[in-house]
Amino acid sequence: FNVNVAWNKGSEVIGDLEYIAAFHRIVLPIAQEFNPDLVLVSCGFDAAKKDPLGRCNVTPGCYAYMTHHLKGLAQGKLVLILEGGYNVKEMSECMAACTRVLLGEAPPTVASGIPTRISETSIANTIQAHRKYWKCLQDHRPSSLPDD
C-alpha cells in the first residue's frame, strides 16, 4: 500500500518534527495494522535538508530514526531502495545513516518539540482522507494546537 501526506507548506519549513509526527500518527499505525510480510521503502530523499527541489529540512538522523522503527515490522524484513534526491552529498549522508541502522547501530536522537501548525493541518487532512480504510485512524481526534 501507499499513503501520501500532502504537506501544506506555506511559509513554514517542514522538517524532522513534522515528519516524525506524520510517521507516528499515520504511517506506522497503518503499517502495523496492515502487518506486512516484507517492507519495501522507496527512499526519496527530496525532503532532505539542502535539497534544492524539496525545500524541506529533514535530517539524516530523522531518516535513520524512521528506518529504525520500520525494522519492527515484517520481522525486520526491510528493503530500502534509493530513488531520489537532488543534492548528492546530502542524499549520500541520508542513505549512510539509514544503512548504519540496518546494520544494527542505534539511530541518533532526534529533536523533540511541537510540529508547525500547518503540518498539523496536513496530518489531520491525511488522517481524514484515510480513516474510512484503516481502523487505527478511525478514533483519531485532532491534536490541540497552541495559540500563536
Quick overview of this protein structure:
The chain is mainly alpha-helical and 148 residues long. Helix 1 packs parallel to helix 2, helix 1 (16-34) packs parallel to helix 4 (117-130) and helix 2 runs parallel beside helix 3 (88-102).
Explain what this protein looks like in three dimensions.
With about 150 residues, this protein is mostly helical. The protein contains 5 helices and 2 strands; from the N terminus they run αβαβααα. It has helices spanning about 15-35, 60-70, 90-100, 115-130, 135-140, and strands at about 40-45, 80-85. The chain has a two-stranded parallel ribbon. Helix 2 links the parallel strand 1 and strand 2 (about 80-85). The protein starts with 15 loop residues before the first helix and ends in a 10-residue tail after the last helix. The model is unreliable at about 145-148 (pLDDT under 50).
Q: Residue share in helices? A: 40-55%
Quote the distance from N terminus to C terminus: 37 Å
Strand order of the largest sheet: 1-2
Main pleated-sheet profile: 2 strands, parallel
Share of β-strand residues:
5-15%
Average pLDDT level: 91
Low-confidence parts, pLDDT < 50 over ≥5 residues?
Answer: 144-148
Query: Measured on Cα atoms, how large is the radius of gyration?
Result: 15 Å
**What structural class should be given to the helix and strand makeup?**
mainly alpha
